[in-house]
Design a protein that fits this description.
This protein is mainly beta. It has no helices and ten strands. The chain is 0% helix and 54% strand. A six-stranded antiparallel beta sheet has the order 1-2-3-10-5-8, with no helix packed on it. Strands 4-9-6-7 form a four-stranded antiparallel beta sheet, with no helix packed on it. A hairpin with a 2-residue loop joins strand 1 and strand 2.
């Protein structure tokens, strides 16, 4: 077993107001923490990884194929690999939670 304290990992600002921290990375999946300031957004993008997540606080609005989905505190979501998607915090409080990727995103370049 490997324990990965959040404080031991670097947090990067992937885009303005969106902070991501790569946490544990296994052979088949990886975990990241996300924190979106109010109004912050990740533009539409895709990646080969299946992505499932959990919003611990606040809410995020995901746009997939032109349709908006609001995922609030305590809710989870699933995005298939290679599906274009975007996320935005349209609320007045920060949104934070956890994403899990499979296969793992061991060394993601958040700015690509």
């Amino acid at each position: 077993m490997e324990e990965v304290p959040h404080a031991s990992r670097e947090t990067v600002e992937a885009v303005e107001g969106v902070h991501l921290t790569q946490l544990a990375v296994g052979e088949r999946m990886s975990v990241q923490h996300f924190h979106f300031e109010p109004g912050a957004a990740v533009p539409e993008h895709s990646h080969p990884h299946e992505q499932v997540g959990f919003v611990a606080s606040g809410a995020l609005t995901f746009t997939v194929e032109g349709e908006a989905y609001v995922v609030g505190s305590g809710d989870s979501y699933s995005i298939p690999g290679d599906e274009p998607h975007a996320a935005r915090n349209e609320g007045e409080e920060p949104a934070s939670g956890i994403d899990v990727f499979s296969p793992p995103r061991a060394n993601p370049d958040w700015r690509d």
